[in-house]
Amino acid sequence: MAKQYDVLFRLLLLGDSGVGKTCLLCRFTDNAFHPSHISTIGVDFKMKTLEIDGIKVRIQIWDTAGQERYQTITKQYYRRAQGIFLVYDITSERSFQHIMKWASDVDEYAPEKVQKVLIGNKSDEEHKRQVATEQGNKLAKAYGMDFFETSAFTNHNITESFTRLAELVLQANKKDLDLLRVSINDQLDLSALEEEAGVCDGSSNAQKTCWC
Amino acid sequence: MDQSVAIQETLDVGENCLIAVQCLLLLRNGTESRLLGLVECSKEHALFLFSHRRMAITGNDVTLQEIIPISYDFSVVEVSSPDELAVVGADTRVRVTFLNEEMELKLPFGSHTRLFLTEVNRAWCDVCEQYPSSPKFAWLNKYQKNFKEPGSLTPSATRKIKKRDRSNTAHKENKHATSSTETIRGESLHESSQGREKAEIRNELVRSSQHTVSNKAQMLTMPQFGLRDNLVKCELLKKEETYTYIENFNFFLGTYNVNGQTPKESLHTWLGSTAQPPDLYCVGFQELDLSKEAFFFNDTPKEQEWMKAVSDGLHPDAKYALIKLVRLVGIMLLFYVKKEHAEYISDVEAETVGTGIMGRMGNKGAVAVSFRFHNSDICVVNSHLAAHIEEYERRNQDYKDICSRMFFRQLDLTLPPLTIMKHSIVLWVGDLNYRLSDLEVDEVKNLILKGDFETLHNHDQLKRQMDEEAVFVGFMEGEINFQPTYKYDTGSDEWDSSEKCRVPAWCDRILWRGKNITQLNYQSHMNVRNSDHKPVSSLLKIGIKVVNEEIYKRTFEDIVRSLDKLENECIPSVSLAQHVFHFSNVKFMQHQAQTLTLYNDGQVPCQFEFIQKLDEPAYCKPWLTANPPKGFVAQGASVDIDLEVFVNRSTAPELNSGQQQLEDILVLHLERGKDYFISITGSYLPSCFGSPIHMLCQLREPIQDMPLETIHKLNSLPRETSSPDTEKALDIPKEIWMMVDHLYRNASKQEDIFQQPGLRSEFEEIRDCLDTGSLDTLPGSNHSVAEALLLFLDALPEPVIPYSMYQQCLDCCYSNSQCKQIISLLPQCHKNVFNYLTAFLRELLKNSAHNRLDSNILATIFAALMLRSPTKQDILEKRKAKEFFQHFLVQESH
Ligand SMILES: Nc1nc2c(ncn2[C@@H]2O[C@H](COP(=O)(O)OP(=O)(O)OP(=O)(O)O)[C@@H](O)[C@H]2O)c(=O)[nH]1
Ligand SMILES: [Mg+2]
User: How many helices (H) and strands (E) does chain B have?
Assistant: First the structure.
């Protein structure tokens, strides 16, 4: 049988506290939903295997703290991501306004090639909607991003949006991938590929101090 | 400690104990501690198992119990019962097997065990790479003698043999016991009852033994083992039945000894004889070419001729693709499939084994093709075994040699090569050369004429040998309803008329082995007269495992999902009782601590560490420490970390001035896991300690009575502004005055003043008194006040003699006038302080009879505080600073 895993890379979830980042991740990896909000204080991750164009893709999804006071620290994780979700809550105008700030931080701290997808979460709460779908669309267009309205609660568009971002990352890295595939016919650690010297990969031998 | 040292002492020169672990040997009635060492000698490895005293330090502490050579038959696997899956991260249980010996050991959790297992695994992989050449282990022989009770070997040896017999009959296709090595055992006689018990346990283990990789979770935490792929494969294999179904395909098998002839007639009557076109063809030839060229150079034009004859003779109603042709001298196998099946054929490998002259040459032997058809693995063998009626044992041996020497490369090169018998379906054709025994030629011909094949079957050597299980164990052959295929006069259907007048025999046979196989037809083809043999064909209906793509995909996804889940569950995780810590009313030089409790709520033990943030020099601010800053938490255990705040002279100035707050976020990182943020906040009470002189001169009230903004604003004023517009400003900070005045009044004659340390508790009272003005007179002993004064000077952000003037002072330290000149240039408030302090010190010196001070002592102490270097001071600089300062301690004579 052919080998099962070909690529490994990192996706990052960003957005204000309470927009549902942790819930999105939980729904995607465990197909579960927790109605209570336990704010993430730190950086958490989970693994998931997808198949895209016949390539087995293992993705490591990082869930970050959305609370403002931690933002200077979470920024420092951006540069190790190949794909980033910018998440707002359609019932919170404020969280939508903040997307601009998140996006500019991403421009500043994430690698140039990083792929972005805009997510308007909690689409199930239509009655409380403060941000029209059209607004989301417009913003996404302005930034050249794909856009999904999702619901972690009803499992709406969850797999779609994760798969889409993974596809985008795959495409963006296709050149490197093809190159690597010729040389080492083994598991590719795209995340390692992206690492700058001196910053280590979470799964390999960690250096004394590092951002993993 | 490294116990391999103790083992090393027991070894011979040239033998090295590479690594050792202390472990528990699992017995039915408990466990016994053992020391397990991996020993290497000239690239061969063995595990040495020792009993030992509590802590083995020297060779005298250990007694050799057992040696397990690491050969091809050796394996070590992690085991655990399914209900133990949850306790990953506990001790590692492994089962070591060698031939039919087996034991279970419990190794301590941790990287050392990992390392040990990795080393053992590496040693075994080396052996596999060398296969089929196997290590000799000659160096182990001497240990056999060294055991305390040499007689003890007998009982265990017989036991072992018995056991092997049983397991051989149980699974007949079991590994061939090739290795000449034996487990060397050191059970002494008086232990034999226990030994028997052990054997029973082992028997039980043998029965229940399943080399499954059940402790998945634990292995997943070791990415370097790359086990994920293997786990997926393993799970897929286990669930094969769910996503495959059996579909029947017709296999046409043919064998023909052509006696060196070229094809002269169509083979259609033989190969195209079935009603429907078969799905696959496997056609074997023997004696394709009897020339010397073919024998020595393995090169013959007959290959193409016969291949063409076969291609032309295949069933006309279907199109076939030749998948593989393999030939060894005159033994050739052709493998065709219907065009539409070609895409389901994979992993095709061909191999040959010669068993002819010298046991190696290709005049006799076999060729074989190994392949997968859909999800079934199939091996087709075409062999030509030894000739002559009396040589049936030689033929048996040829068969065994072919089985043991035929290896197919596997796609996954880390796997050991595949043998014939490892295939779930084996199809064997050929001139097996078995004859009819104990009958005269005429009797045979007579029986054939009468059609009494049954009597003849009783004389067939192959049938007899198979009945005795001497050859082709596990193989089936259909009923033979055709007359012997050997030996005819070429070109005719007449029996051999040469003077040798051979006895007819069923030399040419077709056998199979595997499930879901039925024979539809087994016949010879009399009207093919090209050779002194007749060709034989067999049409088999074989049930092949065909994959239901949809279910396969779903199964695969399920497996991947559950592995993802398992992996996610095994990401190290802890819970923190608290994420936010607040330290209120932190004071200068006052220690405060709070406890951060980490509880390991994950499935694995974990390593934690506070890590540095980008662009910061340390994991936390200088006024904070975490103790311990890194460590290990076992699963279900917790660890207390002390978070300590302490503001000293180097951190106080910025906190006083408001440039810094007591605020920090610690990043607690788990190795291979999450990061946690811990917020530290606090309120700092500003203090005169660590505040600049010019700022203090602006404060008529105690510092803590002032609003914070005022303090911060005053701090930010440049030093020079103190002189002009401020008639309100004090000449010197009142805090200095309070301390000095106190000492002047009370301590002028105090013995050892400035030499004896103060009390910390009294210092804190003095600090509070200065900062809050709560008392009119300073509390504490004279020594404590003296200490406070020194600390005050030490904490000044800008020393009494500002850093900018330091070098100048040293440069002119030998000139009294120049020194005084420099002091006159100090900023006003600094000059005041300097003069005030030196006047006080001169006063003290007047009482040196009582306080035992001299100018040398005072200069040493005060120069270091008032004339501080912006960098590190060397001895010469220190001397100069003292020199400078001493000018101001001589009594002025007026
Ligand atoms: N109705 C609805 N509620 C949601 C949805 N997603 C999340 N929530 C709720 O929103 C709250 C916050 O969700 P979290 O996922 O914890 O938010 P977060 O973005 O991770 O927040 P921080 O960790 O503080 O950055 C929770 O109470 C969730 O139950 C959704 O799709 N629909
Ligand atoms: Mg969260």
Answer: 28, 30
